[in-house]
Amino acid sequence: MNDLFAPAALSVSELNSIARQLLENQLDGLWISGEISNLTRAASGHYYFALKDAHAQVRCALFRQTATRLAIPLKDGDHIELTGKISIYEARGEYQITVNDMRTLGLGDLYVRYEKLKNTLQNEGLFDSSHKKRLPEKPRAIGIVTSLAAAALRDVASTLRRRAPHIPIIVYPTPVQGAGSEKKIAQAIELANKRNEVDVLLICRGGGSMEDLWAFNEEIVARTIAASQLPTVSGVGHETDFTLADFVADVRAPTPTAAAELVSPNQEEIIKHINQLYEKLQRSITQHYQNASQQLDFLAKQIRHPREKLNIQKQQLENFQAALSQNMAHHFAIQQTRLQHASALLNAVAPQNVLQRGFAMVQTTHGKVVQSSGSLKTGQKLRLVFADGTRDVRVENNPNGELFD
């Protein structure tokens, strides 16, 4: 009976509409202060960012016309005051501030720390080009310092598999953001140098806000990279992101994918180079043979003397021709052997040929290559890749010591 007199329920759309009207009517004309974070500029010219303090944040939109009128350069870390229309985006039930006016208050604390440490390291000469090491043209192994869960790792691994599948990859896993991550990153770099099992080290993570990337602005990370005996490539964030790791590394790449391309020789280019060498060898042998033939023709025309001298020169000519043929054959055989050896080496490292020799590649069900038995768990499903197909298996620890059922 009471249900007959209960107030009618509001729809979500009605609730958001009422909340929008309350916000717009009650909070008009307020000035809010905070620090800019996660600033992005859309292709339309509109700016979107979060205004935050130590405990909370609010979404803000600065449309192109207003941004042009204000003409205030913005960047992450700026302290500002702004006013505008506070409303709810009804479709998602999220509230934001549409900026009408703004004034800057100075640099944010993070940016001040960044500039101070940057100046210190620069004055110490850690950015000087004289300290930069050259990257190896043909690395025997490539190291990666990043998080195992990072999208950057997938991008880098995919690029390396496509360009240089014959080069081993060793990952030195570490958190790339959060409390204490800077120490973990430094430890991973030091471990790679201690083991000395790679020829170049990629230090990478995907894009994010200044706070997300801050571990790569910490002094311990910057100094550890600068002290690395291994050549280092910094691929942190997007093209517009600059961290102190970028300045102290031997090479800065705009993205993790670009970092992978910098350190990996292209397999197609290697094959093309071998073909060019083969063609050059063929031209050299042909030219050498033609020159020798011309010399023989010249010597033959000089035989105009009595029979005895003619016979002597004829014998000399035959000896020279025999020696020339023998030397040509020997020279050609040597060059052919070198070419066959180079081709055999290239075929030996081809992944499909390795599998055809009886080897198998162990992958997780997500396609990630397993490099250590210590990373496996009992009951974990794996995939064995053979030359002629794949098999799914499961890890077991039984008394006989077998790993798979």
UniProtKB/TrEMBL annotation:
Superkingdom of origin organism: Bacteria
GO molecular function: exodeoxyribonuclease VII activity; nucleic acid binding
Keyword tRNA processing attributed: no
Main location: cytoplasm
One GO biological process term: DNA catabolic process
Protein family according to the UniProt entry: Belongs to the XseA family.
Xref: NCBIfam families: xseA
Function: Bidirectionally degrades single-stranded DNA into large acid-insoluble oligonucleotides, which are then degraded further into small acid-soluble oligonucleotides.
Protein name according to UniProt: Exodeoxyribonuclease 7 large subunit
